[in-house]
């Protein structure tokens, strides 16, 4: 198109969920651009978002990586070097296409665009609000209404959802979870909450009390038969799209496609929930606190009522074996201890209770039996773990909420350790084994036996330097790296990988962050105590506390395993390491008697010292080779940091 000029523009995306990141956008007339990086950033929590890492994660393929510093040489070289460059470019274009296909991104985004009525590009560049505005406009125009423009004002915070005080502990019995289906949307639908149905107290007084509802937060809305709201209509459409997605999900058998379809129904669920969010967003396009306050007020009343109904129905007095107890609940869910011993019984009672209680609420509000946790480790509000059962034969998975098994700013050591301990506690049901495992990992850490790739912490660089109030490890490192090599230093929006290195006592942690590659190349020692104190100990204490109570700290963090000296000095001779299952003398190869404790035969024993030195030399040689290879691997294949 001759008259339109293509330009590169800087665009800053900023949202609560995504933080701040800078993009370059180009206009290409007649084309719809769909940036897969943005899709993946939005939908998946990964430790690294390089094309290489993402491709490896989803496709099991890697790119033909070429370091930026050699591109010019490759271009100016010969046919072969240019071929390498070309393959690199081709593969760079092919991988996103393969990802697009596998993740069904285009299909899912197209559906969202149709349901919400926004252009495809908005789904990547804009937030949730614009989708609600678009649906409101579409619905309003059908009814010949216009949407008012309001000036945003900051108001008081309002009360949110109710979290039931947890009865903390380790439950070795099945716990049933009941949860309302699409709670906030169904409240808005059941009570016809909308801008167009809101009444003033004065208007309500003039009307027939049968014609309106007074909400628990004291607002008035007319009933559906008087005038149906726009928001309930919008929600109906979103929820029916979600229902279709859930039906497709149910039919699918391929595990990967199941995940993708689950993502699709989740995206629709979030769009439905953001209608409520939109009415409560005080600096948004059309806040209406009467609506959002009423929604949460209804929610609080309902969860309280659900708890009471469960606990008053399932009692010994009513002919059940045990008095039931709601041990925890959040927003629209209750976790119930029915006092039964099998998953099957818990499911039966759970389903029965959900149906009974659903009858006590207006349509389309529906309480559902969701799953059974068995066993269940309830650490605190929003922090728990358990085996997740949806059928009585076998558990589906281990489910962890608010626990350091997934958070990316912890190092993999923490995630792996916590997962392994939870596995031992929940699956093997052996808390002692979990403690022993934790102890051995702690002593490995303190003795430097943990691989550096397990100690890498990553944090996103979201603001420019001067916007950070306090000094932070990853920001300081990014600055230092930029001074060393501006080309490879992390940029705004990148996740910065770092390790904490040993330094003089009292050096603040933000000064001790270092690039893992630099650490490997220069053999810089790691501050293992930092990892114990600041990374591992809190998450570990948290999961063991419900089991060992006040003894936890002494069991876990104080003991021989934390004293490096006792761990390091072996009671046996220096060659003990080599005696494991040795059948022949390390030097002369004569066979050794059974259960013989030394590596040499009695004849060669006199040379023990020199043999040992030799072995150490060999070991050092291999260690050096290994370190070099490792560094080289990581240099060219960034993602190996995670995958090795
Ligand atoms: P959920 O029980 O997670 O969601 P849901 O009830 O809408 O859907 P489901 O059928 O899967 O149970 O959360 C309960 C309420 O909390 C939800 O109705 C609205 C609110 N909420 C938000 O406002 N934003 C969110 O992102 C989520 C997850 C929930
Ligand atoms: Mn729910
Ligand atoms: Mn819920």
Summarize the structure.
This protein is α+β, with helices and mostly antiparallel strands and 644 residues long. It has helices at residues 36-43, 51-59, 71-76, 79-102, 105-116, 120-125, 129-142, 183-190, 201-205, 230-251, 255-280, 289-313, 343-358, 412-427, 431-446, 473-484, 516-522, 528-548, 552-557, 564-568, 608-636, 640-643, and strands at 8-15, 19-26, 163-164, 169-171, 175-180, 198-199, 212-214, 220-222, 325-330, 333-337, 367-380, 383-389, 397-401, 457-460, 495-500, 513-514.
Question: What would you note in describing this structure?
Answer:
The protein is an alpha+beta fold and 644 residues long. It folds into 4 domains: 8-103, Nucleotidyltransferase, domain 5 (2-Layer Sandwich), CATH 3.30.420.10; 129-401, Alpha-Beta Complex (Palm domain of DNA polymerase), CATH 3.90.1600.10; 452-567, Orthogonal Bundle (Topoisomerase I, Chain A, domain 4), CATH 1.10.132; 583-644. Helices cover 46% and strands 13% of the residues. The protein is built from 22 helices and 16 strands. It has helices spanning 36-43, 51-59, 71-76, 79-102, 105-116, 120-125, 129-142, 183-190, 201-205, 230-251, 255-280, 289-313, 343-358, 412-427, 431-446, 473-484, 516-522, 528-548, 552-557, 564-568, 608-636, 640-643, and strands at residues 8-15, 19-26, 163-164, 169-171, 175-180, 198-199, 212-214, 220-222, 325-330, 333-337, 367-380, 383-389, 397-401, 457-460, 495-500, 513-514. Strands 3, 4, 5, 9, 10, 11, 12 and 13 form an 8-stranded antiparallel sheet that branches. β7 and β8 form a beta hairpin. α2 (51-59) crosses α4 and α10 runs antiparallel to α11. The longest helix has 29 residues, at 608-636. The protein is globular. The protein starts with 7 loop residues before the first strand and ends with a helix. 29% of the residues are buried. Mean pLDDT is 87; it is low at 566-580 and 635-644. The structure holds thymidine-5'-triphosphate and manganese (II) ion (2 copies).
